Amino acid sequence: MIDLLVAGGGPAGLATAIHAARRGLQTVVIEKRPGAIDKACGEGLMPHAVRELGLLGAHPAGVPFRGITYLDGKRSVSAAFASGPGLGVRRTALHRALLDAAGAAGVRIETGTVGAVTQDDDGVCVNGIRARYLAAADGLHSPVRAGLGLHRPGPATRRWGFTRHVGVAPWSDCVEVYWAADPAAGEAYVTPVAGDCVGVAILSSRQGGFDEHLAAFGALRDRLAGHPNEPDRAAGPLRQRVARRVVGRVLLVGDAAGYVDALTGEGLGLSFAAARTLVDSVVADRPADYERRWRKTTRRYRLMTAGVLRASGSPLRPLIVPAARLAPPVFTRIVNLLAE
Ligand SMILES: Cc1cc2nc3c(=O)[nH]c(=O)nc-3n(C[C@H](O)[C@H](O)[C@H](O)COP(=O)(O)OP(=O)(O)OC[C@H]3O[C@@H](n4cnc5c(N)ncnc54)[C@H](O)[C@@H]3O)c2cc1C
Fold it and tell me: pLDDT tens across 67-82, in order?
């Protein structure tokens, strides 16, 4: 019997597997897609996520950014990170670096689709593989989570993410967040990911094509016009409510464990931090501890993201950028609470 089986080899699954293998656990990852996987993502690693990557021994090529800029079409305001730069990094580069680190740690990766999960007092069984524990890292719509009946209904207003890579040299050393006047049109993020490429992510409560969404951000649309782009991607609904993160010997990590919104760009850093916590609980043979520790690790992010999300959908929305400009220390403090 192996020690830890990981369902899903995205960033959360690979981070979990790397930490586990390094702690001496025999670890197998089952991922349905081979190679370096692309996915709709803003691709901005906040400073704490960069530190977590270092702990994982993963060093992808990317573009450092020094903070966050908010823009509303009329004005802009920037806040610098106090604890070092963030990193804009393409998902494929991130995934390749994590795969390399997993290989170096001795993780076995199998290509396959995770099927039904059964468990007893001593272990779990998936696809004929028996393990002491299962980490479900199978993403936003986690089939393992659904199979365990842990999914809870989301809010009435749903949001989706739409992404595109554009072949243009980055023009800012910050991640830019453009706030559309109409709350339903949402926010557009621009992250520098290479010397000749930016990633654009739009979060919106409307469905539709990327160009349709981009039309709500006139200045950004004009800046991107005429530059080549890669095929668009989409993901959502973003909000995923989860009853709990531990059922017997199955522990949920990454987006599978629950997701608020991409508004504050925290998903990867939290996935990496939760992966460490999960492995601590497995090594201690105390899986139930993970729920409490997950809540503690993610509390600030969940509360702050939910707070910004509420403000963004309220009559306060038009005041967000002017208020940040009027009180730069407050804006900088909020940005750094999320970056730490
Ligand atoms: C539009 C958007 C913008 C974002 N921007 C940012 C950002 O700027 N910064 C940031 O930190 N985070 C951002 N995020 C969040 C970030 O993308 C996620 O938090 C992160 O990808 C979570 O990783 P994961 O491994 O949990 O899930 P995933 O990356 O989705 O990986 C799950 C893996 O499980 C596999 N899988 C699923 N089902 C099965 C199965 N049955 N069998 C085998 N394998 C399976 C999938 O193939 C996949 O590889 C953004 C998200 C979105 C949608």
Answer: 999 999 999 999 999 9
